[in-house]
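Exam revision sheet. Question 4 asks you to relate a sequence to its structure. Input first:
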Amino acid sequence: MNIILFDGDEWENMRPLTLTKPFGELRIGVLSFKERWMKYLGGNYSYLTRDYLSKKYPTHIENRNVFINSAFFPNGMLAEAISKLDEGETLWQKEVLVAACMMDTEDFKNKKFSETKKKLNSVAVHIRHLWELFIYNEFAIRHDFDLLTKDRESQPIPDGNRVVNPENIFLEEGAIVEYSSLNASNGPIYIGEGAEIMEGSLIRGGLALCEGGKINMGTIVYPGTTIGPHSKVGGELNNAILMGYSNKSHSGFLGNSVLGEWCNLGAGTNNSNLKNNYADVKLWDYNQKKYLNTGLQFCGLFMADYSKSAINTQFNTGTVVGVSSNIFKPGFPPNFVNSFNWGGSRDSSRFELNTSFDAAAKMMARREKLLTDKDKKILEHIFNETAQY
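Answer key, structure tokens:
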């Protein structure tokens, strides 16, 4: 099966996290959306995304292609329904296209569908807004835990730890857990290959600690938290997601928040996730270019790829930080910080493009990764596109 994950209108809503990548590369639970679909449906995978992203994420076409909306969370019934689609047929959840079986991308783009419009018999989780990433994260952790550990045996949990509900804890090969408290009574704890929980940490599931991730000494982790591949955390986290290769290594609170890749929070960085008057939190929307009501009392920080904060930075409730920004000026940054902002205030200068390349390349080199020419082209596009702000 040749599967093409396409970006619908949901991609627009997930900016700035999707400015650098297709929707399917986002991570909640243990897995990215693409990785999760790969567990349900075999075959080849590629993307149909925005033009400026397509050099890095090209579309692979064969004689028969299945287009799937990345924003839907797969389940067994949904995967089965998609696998049964014939040429020209489509699958819908209410008025939203979930999947289509088409000969080529032009037919798909031009909506040359057959009259056979199939409807889902059951409701699939559909991620449409930034804040739904952390809202559904605990659900995703439970789902992925069952998906990844079914009929498998965990590595033994070392005796020095205090453990509640060990049957709900899974250690992959090479995982290290030393002298910590692991309470999986309310949700599973997944510890990926080569990941480490250092001594004195207090962990309450659900938790996803992905491959190569690290929880530093004395860290407090509350439910609904994902620490993506090769990310490091310390301090206190609650219902937070680090997509991968990002660091919150020191003291400070991160709650009801999402960090992209290659982010770094300086020591003592905190975010507010609750307004003093308990009012609903408003969040910057790239489509309408204004703040929209999330309907949530708890909503924290959203930081896109390559952005960083200095020591003791204080983020207000409902803050959105774009790509490759550096927050270091005193006082609260505004609730919307544009991409390539140098300082973090509304009157800050822009982070010079070539200098930003150098900073990103140095950070990536520490993890033996390269900033490619394709990455630079994407960042250059974002730099130019976001100049309007």
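Marking note for examiners. The two ends are 42 Å apart (CA to CA).
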